[in-house]
Amino acid sequence: MVTERDRRTPEAPAWTRSYADGVPAEVDVPRETVPDLLTAAAQRFPDRPALEFVGATTSYAELRDAVARAATVLRDLGVRPGDRVALVLPNCPQHVVAFNAVLRLGAIVVEHNPLYTPEELGSQFRDHGAAVAIVWNVVAPVVQGLDAPELREVLAVDLSRALPLVKRLALRLPVPKARATRAAMTKPAPGTTSWDAVVAGATPLEEAHPGPAHEDVALLQYTGGTTGSPKAAVLTHRNLIANVTQSLAWVPQLRAGEEVFYGVLPLFHAYGVLLCLAAAVRLGAVLVLFPRFDVDQVLAAAKKRPPTFFPGVPPMYQRLAAAAEERGVDLSGARVAISGAMPLPLETAQLWERVTGGLVVEGYGMTEASPIVIGNPVGPTRRTGTVGLPFPSTRMRVVDPEDPTVDRAPGERGELLVQGPQVFSGYWNRPEETAAVLLPGGWLRTGDVVEVDDDGFVRIVDRIKELIITGGFNVYPSEVEDVLKAVDGITDAAVVGLPGKNGEDVVAAVVLERELDLDAVRESIRGSLAAYKVPRRIVAVDDLPRSQIGKVLRREVRDQLLAD
C-alpha cells in the first residue's frame, strides 16, 4: 500500500529527484501489525509455498495454521500481551512460526544469536526478563543453565523435524556422514518441553482472540548501538510495517505472489527480520531458508528454485557468484540483490551482475531504525561507492558530532542524523542512553561520519566511536584499511587505535595470503597516506573477528592486540 506523490513539489527533499522510476517521495504507513501480513498472504495465496527448508515446503495456509496452534501453546503457558518471549534459534521454519505466534498474542519477541556465550545470553535474559524461551535443542543446556531468575519454561526445537521425511530417515543411518549431520542439527535436550510436539498437538487459537495494536511493541533487538554496550532497541509494529512499506516501495520491480526470497541472513538479526520475516510475507513470496550460509547448499537450492530477490552481505555475493560461474550454475533469475552491513566492493558488484544479469545495490541501516534508512536506487541512477539516498518518508541531517544541534555546511563531513517512521522509540529500560541518541523531533544519532554529495548520495566515512585521535589529528580507520587492502598479498585489514604517547597509536591487523615484510608494507603506503595515518605497527593475524553477518568487529581486534 504505497502512495506516490509528486517528487517535484517544494516539500519533497531534493534527493528524491535521483530516485529510480516509480519510487515515491513519501509512503503512507498502513495501520497494520506484523501478524496482519501473514493473515493477508494466507488469504491471497493459500496454496503458494511460504517456506522451503532443505526441500520441505510449507504453504501460506499451513504456515498460518501452525502459527495459530503455536499461539495456543504460548497462551496456555501464560504468555500475555506485553510479555517477552525469547527466541534462540537458527534459520528454520520453527523460527518463523514462533516469531509470528508470539506477535499474534500481542507479546514481544526477543531475538538472540544461538552462538552467543552463556555470559552474553545471561546478561540479555536478565535485562529483558522473559519467562518463556523457544530455543534450538543444541543450545538448550546453555539456556537452562543461565542465571535468569524470570525464566521458567524452555521449549526445545529439533531442526530435523522440519526436514522432509526421507531426509529425516537418512539421519538415522549408522554412517559417519549421517552422524555428523545429525550432531550438527539436533541433540537431545533433557528437562525441556518439545516445541515441535506441543505445537503439532495443539488446537488453533480462535480468530477472535485479540491481537496487538499498531503502536504496540513487537520486537526487542539487541545491538551495540552507537555506544558499544549491548542494549535492546524497542521496535513497534508501526516501525516494522513502515520499513516494510518503504523497502518494497524502493524496489517496485518486485511482484506480489511471484518472488522467491533467499533467507541466508540470520533471522535473529534486524536485517533478516525485516526482509525475510516481514517483507517476504507482505509480498506472498517463497522464503527459501538456510540454517547457515553454505555455498554448496545455496547453489543446490538455486538449481531447483532460483532466487529472484537476494538480500545479503558482500562476501556472500563474491563467493556465490564465483562458484556459480565456475560450476555453470544459472543464477539469472536473481533480478535484485540488496547488500548491507559493510561496503560493497566494485569488483564484487561487477562479478555478481555479470553472473546474474541482475542488479546489486548497497544500502545502509541500523537496528534502531528497523533497520533500513538509506539505499542506492535500483536502477541506472545508483552511485557506486555510496550507500545511496534516504528512503521515502525519511529525512537526514549532517551535524557537528560534538554539538548535534549545529548543522554542517553542504559537502562537509559530519555525523548523520535520520528521522522517519521506522526510527525506534528507545532502548529497553535505558532512558539515559535513549536520550543520548534520540534527539527532539525524533532525530536519531547514527554515530556515523558521512559525506553527502550535491545530489544527496551518502558516503559513510567511519564510525565516530572508532575514530582514532593521534597527536591531535583524526584518523578514520576505513581510509587506512582501504590502502592496506590494496597491497598485493593482503586479503583483509582492520585498523584500530591503541594507547600511545600522543593519545592513540594507529595499529593495523592484516590477513596475508603469503608471507610479506610488514616493515616494507609500512614504507610502501607512505605515499598514499599522511604521515600521522601510517600505522606505527602492522600485525599479521590468521583471521579477523566478524559478526554473524560478516562485519569486522574492530572492538574485538583492539582487545586482541592489547592482549598480545
Automatic annotation (TrEMBL):
Gene3D superfamilies: 3.30.300.30, N-terminal domain of ligase-like. It comes from the Bacteria. The keyword Ligase applies. It is an enzyme of class 6 (ligase). Its EC number is 6.2.1.3. The keyword Flavoprotein does not apply. GO terms for molecular function: long-chain fatty acid-CoA ligase activity. Residues 39-428 form the AMP-dependent synthetase/ligase domain. Signal peptide: none annotated. Residues 479-551 form the AMP-binding enzyme C-terminal domain. Keywords: Ligase. Pfam families: AMP-binding, AMP-binding_C. PANTHER family: AMP-DEPENDENT SYNTHETASE AND LIGASE, LONG-CHAIN-FATTY-ACID--COA LIGASE. This is Long-chain fatty acid--CoA ligase. It comes from Modestobacter caceresii. The lineage of its organism: Bacteria, Bacillati, Actinomycetota, Actinomycetes, Geodermatophilales.
